[in-house]
Amino acid sequence: MAKITFITPGKDSITLEATSGNAMELAVNNGIPGIGGDCGGVCSCATCHVYVPAEHASKLTAASDIEKDMLELDDNVNEFSRLCCQIEITPQVDGLVLEVVG
Ligand code: FES
Fold it and tell me: Is the pLDDT of residue 102 over 90?
């Protein structure tokens, strides 16, 4: 199980728990604003763009080339950007904070 905290575009902090799936699915299933998940998690829409605080980056595996290419198309990309459909829910991501770009 992992707890993930989403910081919404309105700066609300919402902590959710899950045992499987990915962070986009967790957000969409719980109505987190600003996460669209339009492509269903196949890394082709960037509607699941989040910022990962630097101190949490070590919880994640490196972004794939496909994820990096997709992020480059987003105007709000920066060095903290990730697509949360690519963040698998595992015990390793427990405590992760994701700031929704929206
Ligand atoms: S849901 Fe489409 S890229 Fe993540």
Answer: no
